[in-house]
Amino acid sequence: MGSNMGIEIKLKHRQCKMHLILEHKITVIVGLSGTGKSTMHRALTDKDATTQIKVSDTRYQIEYISNRQSADNLIDNNNVFISYKIYLIDEGRLEIDNYIANAIQYSAHSYFIITSRTNLGKLNFDMHAVKELEMQNNGITILKDYVLTSRKTRNELYNMDVESIVIEDAGKAIQFLKNYL
């Protein structure tokens, strides 16, 4: 795949198979407990003899950021992440504060896969970059475009917390919607 099309990752790890195309610098993966977020982390980081990972652009290596210290070690003197890496971040283990968010935003030739259970309000990213892990009735977990799968009824939308649906860092949209609603 060319750089305009993104990077393709194919993974086989024990019974887990994953196919992910990184079309955006930041890909956020959300999902309920038990849908496979932690399994994906283990498969991409705890490589054993059964693990097969193929990245379409061989210049890129997958790098797991387990905590703040490992993040700081991967940020260079220009306050950006080292280039030509696909960074895997569990937002439950590494809080994405303003420093980390700025390092992500200004990094070039890097991709970020962030699994999250919380609001990532300090990052700007395309809503189409948000994917949701969903367990189907047959026990297979699939990755779906969150924008297309999160259709809510008018009543559900009315009762949602504004912070859970607005992702931007200035706070202006949140304040506008709170005033409007």
* Beta-strand residue percentage: 25-35%
Report the major sheet.
Answer: 6 strands, mixed
**What structural class results from the helix and strand content?**
alpha/beta
Number of helices: 6
What does it look like?
- The structure is a single chain.
- This protein has 181 residues and is an alpha/beta fold.
- The protein has helices at residues 37-45, 68-74, 98-106, 146-149, 154-159, 172-180, and strands at residues 7-13, 16-22, 26-31, 52-55, 61-65, 85-90, 110-116, 130-135, 141-145.
- The strands form two sheets. It has a six-stranded mixed β-sheet with strand order 5-6-7-3-8-9. A three-stranded antiparallel β-sheet has the order 2-1-4, with helices on one face.
- The protein starts with 6 loop residues before the first strand and ends with a helix.
- Mean pLDDT is 75; it is low at 166-170.
Keywords:
181 residues, alpha/beta, six-stranded mixed sheet, three-stranded antiparallel sheet, 6 helices
